[in-house]
Design goal:
- This protein is an alpha/beta fold.
- The protein has one domain.
- The strands form two sheets. Strands 1, 2, 3, 6, 7 and 8 form a six-stranded mixed β-sheet that branches. It has a two-stranded antiparallel ribbon with strand order 4-5.
- The longest helix has 30 residues.
- The two termini are 39 Å apart.
C-alpha cells in the first residue's frame, strides 16, 4: 500500500535530520576551523536561554527560586562543567541577547577565549552558590550530555581559566526554507546590536546514499538579514 507522510510530519522529519546534520558539521568542521582562528573553546547550545527567564524571581516556584538565586546560574554551570568560567563582560552579553530575543533560535554558538585569569574551583562554587548536585542537559554535540559536577569529584583547589567571548545566533533551514517575519525582525535587532547570525541551509540530495549539502552564511549587517534565502 502506498503511504506518505503528512506535510507537517514530513517537515518535522526534515527538521530533525537537518538539525542533526548541522550539529555534526559544527563539531567536525566549523569548531576546528574557529579554533585555528584563535578561539580556545567552541560550544553549541540548543534549547536554552542564556540566563534566567524574564519572570520576576518571586513569581517562580520555590524550588526554582532556589536554583535561580544567581540569574546566570545556567550558563555559569554549563561553562564550569566544561572546565572554564565566564567573565562579567561575557555574562553581560548573555543578558543583552535575552533582552532582545523574543523567540528561541535553533541554537547559540559560543566562541570563547581565555583571559589569562584563573580562579579556584571552591571560589567559583561559592560564587554560584551551589553544593553537590548534578544536572542533565541535551545539546547538539551529543544526544544526551551530562552537564554538572559533584563537589566530591573535584579538587576544590583546581584552578579554572576565566573566559570571555562572542555569541553567534544559529538558525537552520532545509530545502526551500526561509526566515519567517518574526525571525527576520528578531535577528535584525540582534545584528544591529553586534550579534552575528550564522545561517545554515541543508539540502537533502539523497538520504539513501547519505548525500547532503550544507551551506553556511555569517551575517553581520542588517541588510543581509533581509535576503530571501539564508545562503
Amino acid at each position: 500500500m502506498k503511504y506518505s507522510f503528512k506535510q507537517q510530519d514530513l517537515s518535522n522529519w526534515k527538521g530533525r535530520v537537518t538539525e542533526s546534520l548541522t550539529r555534526s558539521y559544527i563539531r567536525d568542521v566549523l569548531s576546528p576551523k574557529l579554533k585555528k582562528e584563535g578561539w580556545d573553546e567552541i560550544l553549541f547550545l540548543q534549547d536554552i536561554h542564556l540566563r534566567i527567564p524574564a519572570r520576576p524571581l518571586e513569581e517562580l516556584p520555590s524550588y526554582k527560586q532556589r536554583f535561580y538565586r544567581d540569574k546566570f546560574m545556567s550558563i555559569k554551570v554549563i561553562l564550569l562543567s566544561k572546565g572554564v568560567y565566564p567573565d562579567q563582560e561575557f555574562l553581560d552579553k548573555c543578558e543583552k541577547v535575552n533582552g532582545i530575543l523574543e523567540h528561541l533560535p535553533d541554537g547559540f554558538l559560543l566562541k570563547l577565549r581565555k583571559t589569562g585569569e584563573m580562579k579556584q574551583m571552591k571560589d567559583l562554587i561559592s560564587d554560584i552558590g551551589i553544593g553537590e548536585w548534578r544536572w542533565k542537559w541535551g545539546n547538539w554535540f551529543e544526544e544526551i550530555d551530562e552537564i554538572g559536577f559533584s563537589t566530591r569529584e573535584v579538587d576544590e583547589t583546581t584552578e579554572i581559566p576565566i573566559v570571555t567571548g562572542e555569541i553567534e545566533i544559529v538558525e537552520v533551514k532545509s530545502d526551500k526554507g526561509r526566515l519567517g517575519k518574526v525571525q527576520r525582525e528578531g535577528y535584525t535587532n540582534l545584528v544591529r546590536y553586534g550579534y552575528p547570525l550564522r545561517l545554515f541551509h541543508v539540502s537533502i540530495v539523497s538520504f539513501d546514499r547519505n548525500h547532503f549539502e550544507i551551506k553556511e552564511k555569517l551575517i553581520r549587517t542588517v541588510n543581509e538579514v533581509e535576503e530571501p534565502r539564508p545562503c
